[in-house]
Amino acid sequence: MSSAARSAGPDQQVMTDSADGPLAQEATRIVLRPIASPLPLGFLALFVGSLLVSALQLHWVPVAQRHEIAIGVLALTVPLQLIACLYGFLCRDVVASTGLGLLGGTWAVLGVTSLTTPPQATSPGLGILLVVAAGALLVPTVAALHSKVVAAVLLALAAVRFAITGGYELTSAPGWQYASGICGVVVAGLALYAALAAEVDSATRRNLLPLLRPESGQRAVSGRLTDQTQTLPREAGVRQQL
């Protein structure tokens, strides 16, 4: 009795019995493609965007340079964070990808607004959007506490920064703008540290700079491959429904 195999898609192979015809065996293969971590790219984009906007809010650069700042945010921060977001999904890290996607979208709104409104003008509509975006960022922030504490703290600070900026847009009070600028500098500093720690971790395979990963997050880095792949059949992209 002979057996024949026919292809049923790029990742699936179905075995049939050529003599009797009934299905004898069905096997599904899930292919994992190693991808570099997108976190350093996303964190460095956040570092640049946060520091640029803080420089404008704290009057380190004249208000007349706001268009150049906005172009820098739109041309550098937004696309890099969206790229990191997409590869975060491919890396099966929904927390990082969701957070970076929200950050990229919020920076895009800020950049476009700076290009299209007069200098020192405020917008209550923009203020409401920033407050809502800050609330949305709390979702990946809470989830990140179970895997990457430094990333969770960074997302929380970014949410606070957007909320404070929203307060300035709603009230036009200079104190809110100054507070947002200071918070942005703190966010930029932590983003630079997180990017360096993630970059060194990926390049050397050694945890030289702590990212404060809890036990579950540490197992994801140093655990066995079988520990990481045993739940694959139940993950989005493999199972039939989301």
Summarize the structure.
With 242 residues, this protein is mostly helical.
Note the main attributes of this structure:
single chain, 242 residues, mainly alpha, three-stranded antiparallel beta sheet, 8 helices, disordered N terminus
What report would you give on this structure?
The chain is mainly α. The longest helix has 31 residues, at 174-204. Strands 1-2-3 form a 3-stranded antiparallel sheet, with no helix packed on it. The protein is built from 8 helices and 3 strands. Strand 1 and strand 2 form a beta hairpin. Residues 1-20 have low confidence and may be disordered. 64% of the residues lie in helices and 7% in strands. The relative contact order is 0.12.
SSE order and pairing:
Elements (H helix, E strand, L loop, with lengths): L2 E5 L4 E6 L5 E6 L10 H19 L8 H25 L3 H23 L7 H21 L4 H23 L2 H31 L10 H8 L2 H5 L13
Antiparallel strand pairs: 1-2, 2-3
Helix pairs in contact: 1-2, 1-3, 1-6, 2-3, 3-4, 4-5, 5-6
In terms of per-residue confidence, which ranges show pLDDT below 50 for 5 or more consecutive residues? 1-20
Cα gyration radius (Å): 23 Å
Query: For the report, how would you describe the main beta sheet?
Result: 3 strands, antiparallel
Strand order of the largest sheet: 1-2-3
